[in-house]
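Hello, quick one for you while I still have it in my head. I'm working through a protein record and want to make sense of it properly. Would you mind checking whether the tokens look sensible for this chain? I owe you a coffee for this, so here goes:
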Amino acid sequence: GLARLGLSGNGIGEEGVGRLARVLRECKALAHLDLSHNRIGAEGAGTLAGRLEECKALAHLELGENEIGDEGAGRLAAVLGGCKSLAHLDLRGDFVGAESRELLAGVLENCTLLS
């Protein structure tokens, strides 16, 4: 199956990430997902979050420069703690405030591979 998907800088936006999220459930071997620089916003981050739990092999998640903000970070935090194989998470340039960063840090303690 698909192990690596790089869509950085394709401008897929909220609608595109919605379509992608629908097929993620079929990508059981997906270990590396790069959606950086795609303007997915908070809504797109929430849509993606709803499928991430199904990606049991996901080790590398790049979501930088998507302007997900605190709302999107909160929706990601709700599921990322269950992603036990996660070793790398990039949210640079996503306008995530201090409170949301603390929330993420707390749930990511469950991701023992995270560097």
